[in-house]
């Protein structure tokens, strides 16, 4: 006896079953959206906790001296020491390479410089592990027997390349997103700095106030300004705090702000007027970027227009005429 389908079939699929699955997925998405809307968390909560840790480190660095000071400021773990020793035995770990990875980690928002050793270790280990696993699946077990030799070699090379460049691509992508978010809020932050400077606040108090005001709208920028305010309060040289800000952010605009702040600290020039000029310049740059994107829009819309809109338009316009012509030919 042949089992009859439970519902109407369309292209070999049960319509009722597919509709039930889609309805369940939609209900789950609605529940997830409601949960995300109800449990809104402050984006600055974790950053404030990290900044408090940085404040305590700077306090400890001022209280203690000599080797104890360096030991309190440098965060080291047993795992990073083991990885560093292993890489040093194979002559893989180089000082220039470590500094380059540390710079990329700073751009991505990672404060712990010891993570650079972990990243270099992953770049050395992942190609061996994932490459060996890929070779076992492709050539040993032959999981895809119909795949040709060229396709097998290409798949193996892609896996090895991605396993080597994967950590670096992840950090670079995160750094790019973070830099764009900081770039969006920089003109507004400079306007607030101008207001704070004209109100008579000190530089560290102005940075702290701007960080609190922009913490929710631009969490990354608020994080950087709050950390700069902490370093301005505790570091022996204020120039070092500004240089640390330029080190952590991959933006020429931030480097210009840092240069302006250092010059005003050194020569006593009015801070509000200099920041007002920079703010106007950054706003003009933001308007130029928006105009550039708007000018590229017609060229970008050409491909969707040809692929999706024009065929539908032709069907709507020529469809009735084609139906009437076919009816007349049949008659």
Report on the structure:
It is a single chain. With 331 residues, the protein is mostly helical. The chain has helices spanning 15-38, 45-63, 67-73, 78-89, 95-108, 115-140, 149-198, 203-213, 219-234, 238-248, 252-267, 271-330; strands at residues 9-10, 13-14. It has a two-stranded antiparallel ribbon with strand order 1-2. It is extended and about 95 Å long. The two termini are 45 Å apart. Residues 1-5 and 63-76 have low confidence and may be disordered.
Shape: extended
Oligomer classification: single chain
Give the number of DSSP strands. Answer: 2
The helix tally amounts to: 12
Helix fraction by DSSP (H/I, runs of at least 4): over 70%
What is the alpha-carbon Rg in Å?
29 Å
H/E series? EEHHHHHHHHHHHH
Beta-strand residue percentage: under 5%
The main β sheet shows up as: 2 strands, antiparallel
- The N- to C-terminal Cα distance equals 45 Å
**Rounded mean pLDDT score:** 78
């Amino acid at each position: 006896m042949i089992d009859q389908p439970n519902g109407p079939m369309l292209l070999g699929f049960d319509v009722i079953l597919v509709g039930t699955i889609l309805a369940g997925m939609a209900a789950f998405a609605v529940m997830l959206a409601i949960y995300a809307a109800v449990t809104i968390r402050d984006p600055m909560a974790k950053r404030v906790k990290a900044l408090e840790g940085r404040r305590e480190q700077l306090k400890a660095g001022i209280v203690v001296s000599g080797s104890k000071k360096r030991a309190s400021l440098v965060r080291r773990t047993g795992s990073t020491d083991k990885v560093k020793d292993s890489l040093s035995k194979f002559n893989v770990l180089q000082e220039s390479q470590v500094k380059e990875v540390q710079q990329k980690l700073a751009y991505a928002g990672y404060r712990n410089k010891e993570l650079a050793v972990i990243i270099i270790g992953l770049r050395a280990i992942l190609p061996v592990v994932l490459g060996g696993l890929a070779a076992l699946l492709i050539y040993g077990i032959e999981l895809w027997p119909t795949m040709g030799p060229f396709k097998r070699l290409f798949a193996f090379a892609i896996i090895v390349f991605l396993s080597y460049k994967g950590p670096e691509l992840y950090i670079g992508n995160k750094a790019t997103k973070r830099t764009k978010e900081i770039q969006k809020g920089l003109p507004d932050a400079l306007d607030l700095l101008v207001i704070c400077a004209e109100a008579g606040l000190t530089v560290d108090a102005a940075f702290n106030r701007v960080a609190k005001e922009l913490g929710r709208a631009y969490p990354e920028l608020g994080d950087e300004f709050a950390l700069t305010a902490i370093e301005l309060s505790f570091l022996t040289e204020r120039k070092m705090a500004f240089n640390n800000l330029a080190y952590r952010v991959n933006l020429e605009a931030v480097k210009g702000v840092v240069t302006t702040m250092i010059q005003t600290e050194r020569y006593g020039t009015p801070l509000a007027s200099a920041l007002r000029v920079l703010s106007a310049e950054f706003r003009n740059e933001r308007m130029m970027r928006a105009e550039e994107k708007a000018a590229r829009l017609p060229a970008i819309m050409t491909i969707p227009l040809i692929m999706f809109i024009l065929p539908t338009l032709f069907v709507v316009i020529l469809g009735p005429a084609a139906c009437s012509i076919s009816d007349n030919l049949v008659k």
